[in-house]
Amino acid sequence: xxxxxKELQEKLQESCLGGGLERIEQRHQKGKLTARERISVLLDxxxxxxxxxxxxxxxxxxxxxxxEFLGDGVVTGCGTIDGRLVYVAxxxxxxxxxxxxxxxxxxxxxAQELALKNGVPFIQIxxxxxxxxxxxxxxxxxxGEIFKFNTLAxxxxxxxxxxxGPCAGGAVYSPAITDFVFMxxxxxxxxxxxxxxxxxxxxxxxxxxxxxxxxxxxxxSGVAHFFDQTEKECxxxxxxLLEYLPSNNVEDPPEKEVTDSPFREDESLLTVVxxxxxxxxxVKDIICSVVDNGEFIEVHALFAxxxxxGFSRLNGKVVGIVANQxxxxxxxxxxxxxxxxxxxxxxxxxxxxxxxAIVDVPGFLPGVSQEHGGIIRHGAxxxxxxxxxxxxxxxxxxxxxxxxxYVCMCSKKLGTDLxxxxxxxxxxxxxxxxxVNVAHRREISAAENPEKVREEKVRQYRExxxxxxxxxxxxxxxxxxxxxxxxxxxxxxxxMLHRKREDRPRKKHGSIPL
Length: 514
What we know:
Blueprint: H1 2-16, H2 21-29, H3 35-42, E1 49-51, E2 74-81, E3 84-91, H4 102-118, E4 122-126, H5 137-153, E5 159-163, E6 166-168, H6 173-177, E7 180-184, E8 189-191, H7 195-202, H8 208-212, H9 214-221, E9 226-228, H10 231-242, H11 283-290, E10 297-299, E11 307-314, E12 317-324, H12 335-350, E13 355-361, H13 368-373, H14 375-388, E14 393-402, H15 403-408, E15 418-421, E16 426-428, H16 432-439, H17 441-446, H18 450-464, H19 468-473, E17 479-480, H20 486-497
Parallel strand pairs: 3-4, 4-5, 5-7, 6-8, 7-9, 12-13, 13-14, 14-15, 14-16, 15-17
Antiparallel strand pairs: 1-2, 2-3, 10-11, 11-12
Helix pairs in contact: 4-5, 12-14, 16-18
């Protein structure tokens, strides 16, 4: 037995060393963590249980001419984050560049399968040179199986991808299917085809960072939801995000002990929105004022800044916030903001997270590029997502709510359960100036003093239409509230809706206008 135990220890040590001490040292010299070190930062101390340690790429003799590595370039298993079970897969670049072969893929798929069976989050740390050329089509089939399980798990368990190295070719589609993608500046790279191929095919000169770096995907493509400066910062942020997410789609999000009074009022909310409707403000000032302890974890913070989305708590209960940002493009909805909003709304709906919309929207962004880029189709995604969602939905109108964009921010008839408004809210088909120019164009042009007539018509329009009481009389606004008491009213709204059940027509799935 001693011989057997000695052999076991030797193999365990061999598997833990991955590609060997020399390659591990090379990683450290580049300021990077190893696959196992990343797992140790991510999970609770001492909680990791590894599975399939002895899997090898040589088990079918596909690469018999090469050295055999135990583990086949990926570390998989389960552990806990704040005491809650998760499954992880962390690619090991020290073994054949973390390339994906048949057994490598099988190891990841088994972890995905166990996460799905147990109803717990799955976290994948990507750091791979791509498909293993030596294994040919077996590598591609491996990706296919991973994508399949990503899709099966979508909306059932939270899936998080952390890009801590290269992720190229077909490998990028697994993170793209998952719920959240984390990237690190100057470390993470994602692209379908690399700079060399692009140079050969199109003649374009581009660097890895310009093409698929963390900054590019966080600000321009929207592929990355979170942007961080270091690997450790990134891994700790994943832990923070999971504080707001349930383990699966039949559980409620984790509640937290309340240390912030639900009756707290904030005088600054009386002046946060300028009286001049043309002046901007930062909607995050409102968000941080009303949520528990001012804590707000923003998703897609660097992408489509005209819409702010993210997670907070109200009296200990998790909520998803969707807010227009007047400081960017006046808060107009455009193509990117619509995609950003629709994806976030659908995630919250899948995982039982109530939605709170904070509305100050003058409309959809006008322009030829928006129309030709498909703003109709993209805007419809957000309308579809809100109407389809059956979690509690609350809207707070703080200033402008005009036209189709107002409906898109979850109007009463689109399906919101409770609409609150501040006294200065303006709810109308369009802004007073635009409406007067359309409805009274001839009268104004024929007047001796057109500007004076226009000003009077604008004043009359505001009094008659652009205030919350007109909508309240029609039942489209449920309450006009004192801004200082916004936190209390939102908490009460979440409380009164927390047992909401809403049946929908039976169907396989809707046909969202993708």
